[in-house]
Amino acid sequence: MSKKTISWLMTIAAAGMIVFGIWFSGTQAATFAKGYLLYKADAVSAEDFAPKLQTTNAEVSLPDAEPAESLKDLEKPAEPAETGQLPKDISYPSDPQIGDLMGELIIPKLGASLPIIHGTDEDELEKGVGHYAGSVMPGQSDNSVLSGHRDTVFRELGQVGKGDEFIVQTADGTFTYRVRQVRIVDEDDRTVIVPKPRATLTVSTCYPFDFVGYAPERYILVADLVSSS
Questions:
Q1: First vs last Cα of the chain: how many Å apart?
Q2: Can 131 be counted among the known catalytic residues?
């Protein structure tokens, strides 16, 4: 093979790589790949607390939650299996600033462990699950709101439904929540961030999951605190 032919082939290969790079960075492929990097696969053992919940584009009506657990139950330390045996050397700020890594979200149903970043602007959501700064910290009485992209950290959130659990670790401790309600609402529905009478975790992402482009709805999971340590 002549040097001229080799040079011509290398030029074509280089051009192809440039075109692929432009396509990759300008499509969902880059976002999707970023989501895989945010996951710490198999960080905890996946548990199937309930059958996969089937939903539609309308709000899902589910039975009300059982009466609030007693204070004794809320004060009961979570078992090691529930916390996913998280490392003890992680240090989170007690008063996080926007952009700070403030905790970790464990989703046993998915076997996923995700970083929680304080704030919900695009800069924060690119790094992990965003904590709405206008809501209380996880574990506190009232509504703590977490959000994430459906094509990165929450691409499998549709598999999580009533009866499944979220585990949140912050500087204040480890908190286990159980999902009691699933809702699908319009993107401008402000009921997602309203105050709650007891410790609640509200997790949201865009919906439908397979929608091409900007999704018009939100998939909402409302969970009650069941144990803390």
A1: 70
A2: no
- Is position 118 annotated as part of the catalytic site? no
Catalytic residue (choose from 149, 150, 178, 183): 149
pLDDT in tens, the chain (229 residues): 666 666 666 777 766 667 655 544 444 444 444 444 554 433 333 333 223 223 323 333 333 333 333 333 433 433 433 434 444 456 799 899 999 999 999 999 999 999 999 999 999 999 999 999 999 999 999 999 999 999 889 989 999 999 999 999 999 999 999 999 999 999 889 899 999 999 999 999 999 888 887 888 999 999 999 999 9
Distance CA 170, CA 162 (A): 24
What pTM, to 2 d.p., does this model score?
0.65
Which parts of the chain are beta strand (E)? 101-107, 112-118, 129-131, 143-147, 165-170, 173-186, 200-207, 217-228
Selected catalytic residue, list 110, 206, 221, 223: 206
